[in-house]
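Hi U.,

Before I forget, here's the chain from the pilot set. I'm dumping it here mostly so it's searchable later in email.
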Amino acid sequence: MRKVSLFFLAAATFALAGTARAGTTRWHFVTEQFAPYIAEKDGRAVGPMVVVLTELCGRLGAQCEIELLPWRRALASGTSAQVDGVFALVDHGEPREDFHVSSPVVETRYGFFARKADTVAYRTPSDLIGRNVGVYGPSASSRLLTRLALGTNAQPHLELDNATVLRKLQAGRYGTGGLALVNERVAEDLIAAESLNGLRLAGVAARPNLAYGLRRSMPAAEVERFNRALDQMCRSGRLQALLAPYRMQAPACRTP
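Structure:
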């Protein structure tokens, strides 16, 4: 994927605060195409996670660069502190050693998909016993699958991207009763875009939130400032207003 950089200045209502000047906060974020949450259109990063971050940077008077990269490169840049932040991270409510996880941004669901011709359903991890499961990895999806499959003899199949996972599932490459673990909205977009008929949701695996990851070496005061502004957007209803056009739901707001 070609490298795309986009500088976001403050939105019009925050133009004065976001104007570049001596001492202006400058943050460099990296991300991947993860439609419908993050996408590339006409050389620009778009989607709800981008829209929220753009307004957040404006509120903070910050100049933010968002760079689209393949996920492995984006994650490596974040973990090595070459950039200030990476998104979207899946927040399972557990501390991470590599990033400060921001306040939650959007609710999401991860589900197991199956072929309509198969009667398999997912309710508990025991339903994975004896099954082949396709998953994009290494990623949040593959880490989730590792946890769910612990103690079962399920066989994970790591693929290069979610589209490959769903194509192989449709083609029967994971065998009778095979499954694919994919973010539900991502799967819906891919199934529609690629006409992957004959697939269905077999069960919900997890309901985490998506968030931003801030580099571990970022000063605590800056991390707090970032999260405080995001929390204020949530409590004021602005976060939900930004997500509504995408048919997405803001998580429960954190208390002050």
